[in-house]
Amino acid sequence: MAARVDHLVTSGTFSLDGGTWEVDNNVWIVGDDAEAVVIDAAHDADAIEAAVGGRRLVAIVSTHGHDDHIDAAPALADRTGAPVLLHPDDLMLWKQRHPDRDPDGTLADGQAVTVAGTALTVLHTPGHSPGAVCLHAPDLGTVFSGDTLFSGGPGATGRSFSDFPTIITSIRERLLTLPADTVVRTGHGDSTTIGAEAPHLDEWIARGH
Questions:
Q1: What integer best gives the mean pLDDT of the chain?
Q2: Using one digit for the tens of pLDDT, what is the confidence trace for 51-84?
Q3: pLDDT reading at 3 higher than 90
Q4: What pLDDT does 2 receive?
Q5: Are 47 and 25 in contact (CB under 8 A)?
Q6: Mind spelling out the 3-state secondary structure of the chain?
Q7: How far apart are CA 86 and CA 69, in angstroms?
Q8: What is the Cα–Cα distance from 190 to 44, expressed in whole angstroms?
Q9: How far does Cα 178 stand from its chain's mean position?
Q10: Closest CA to 146 of 42, 12, 39
Q11: What is the distance between the alpha carbons of residues 58 and 37, in angstroms, rounded to a whole number?
Q12: Residue 21, CA atoms < 13 Å, CB-side half-sphere
């Protein structure tokens, strides 16, 4: 049986630079009936564990270190034994939320996380944060973009550790080069496709966000 993508929306807060905002996050679960990978353990370990549904959890992959994407990761790891993986360039963000615990492993550009015979290839896409990554699953025709690319433009770059020119380079070189029919499954909000977003790159550059 081929891997499938399950989707859960959880709600909580995002805090950085002294501010806190209410947010809804997409949690993506990739796998088959036997095993799964969770992409971004956001807010609600109970709900995520229920969605995994007793399958063996291979890994908890964090697309970046902002607290709304990692707040439930340690609790989910403790319950399932799955390692939490994060790009090391975002460790300082992780430590703001979990000062007494480290991630269990690192992510690197080109690394493959395999579940149910399906490879999720790590694309290092800095800009929203230094260690932001996307996960490309060509077998599933999709990329999990975290907060790097959304329907309508790049992720936010107005806060600490973010940079607009860097995220534009990441999107141009790492994401818009994927097949046009690739489904972009985002960290928040609606999915889109590479083909729907690619024509608007110059508009985003002109508006500066």
A1: 97
A2: 999 999 999 999 999 999 999 999 999 999 999 9
A3: yes
A4: 74
A5: no
A6: CCCEEEEEEEEEEEEECCEEEEEEEEEEEEECCCEEEEECCCCCHHHHHHHHCCCEEEEEECCCCCHHHHCCHHHHHHHHCCCEEECHHHHHHHHHHCCCCCCCEECCCCCEEEECCEEEEEEECCCCCCCCEEEEEHHHCEEEEECCEECCEECCCCCCCCCHHHHHHHHHHHHCCCCCCCEEEECCCCCEEHHHHHHHHHHHHHHCC
A7: 11
A8: 20
A9: 17
A10: 39
A11: 5
A12: 9
Structure tokens at 2: 């081929």
CA distance 69 to 66: 6
For residues 134 and 145, the answer to whether their CB atoms sit within 8 Å is yes
Phi-psi sector, 104: left (phi>0), alpha (psi -120 to 50), beta: alpha
Query: Residue 1's pLDDT is what?
Result: 62
Which pLDDT does position 114 carry in this prediction? Answer: 97
What are the φ/ψ torsions at residue 193 (nearest 5 degrees)?
Answer: -130, 160
Q: Which residues pair with 4 in a beta bridge?
A: 31
